[in-house]
Amino acid sequence: MKILLLLISIWAFLSADVVKKVVFDLTTGDIKTFEKKVLSGIAHQKAYYEGKLEELEVTVVIHGNAYKFFVKDLDSSTFKNDKELLKSQSELSKRIRTLFDTYDVEFLICAVGMKNLKIDKTNIYDFVKVVATSTIGLIDKQNDGSAYIPIN
User: Fold this and answer.
1) Distance CA 91, CA 150 (A)
2) What CATH number is associated with residue 91?
3) Looking at the domain assignment, is residue 3 inside a domain?
4) Total structural domains in the chain?
């Protein structure tokens, strides 16, 4: 009986420190894909691991066609004519903010792409961190033990 209690105690101790890590390589500009795989998907994944008493650490690296989801003022950007985005931006921004506030999702955005698209740092959400390049963000996260998942 003492051995069983000892094993259960060891298992509980080891399980308490289980942290899964994932980095999403976000390049899609498709709203439906973004909603399904990022906004809904991450919440479901976090809930799954919480149900197993495990933690899921999530990072999203933003580049490619995905910049548009993280721009505050679309009218002063290259995305000002994207009617579908203009229509849904208010709802999308609330859901993105919820991922950050409620689920502790880290968002990293590529500085090179921002420069090429003429997106000023002041025109992205304040919780999004700028990294030198998306590649560097992905390398750092993967070398830190994050599983790599592309969303394109």
Assistant:
1) 24
2) 3.40.1260.10
3) no
4) 1
- What is the rounded distance in angstroms from the CA atom of residue 125 to the CA atom of residue 112? 17
Torsion 22-27-29-32 (CA) sign: negative
The answer to whether residue 51 is domain-embedded is: yes
Ranges of H-type helices in 52-131: 83-103, 111-116
**pTM of the full structure:** 0.88
**Would you give per-residue pLDDT tens digits along the chain (152 residues)?**
667 555 555 555 555 567 999 999 999 999 999 999 999 999 999 999 999 999 999 999 999 999 999 999 999 999 999 999 999 999 999 999 999 999 999 999 999 999 999 999 999 999 999 999 999 999 999 999 999 999 99
The encoded tokens of residue 99 equal 């991922």
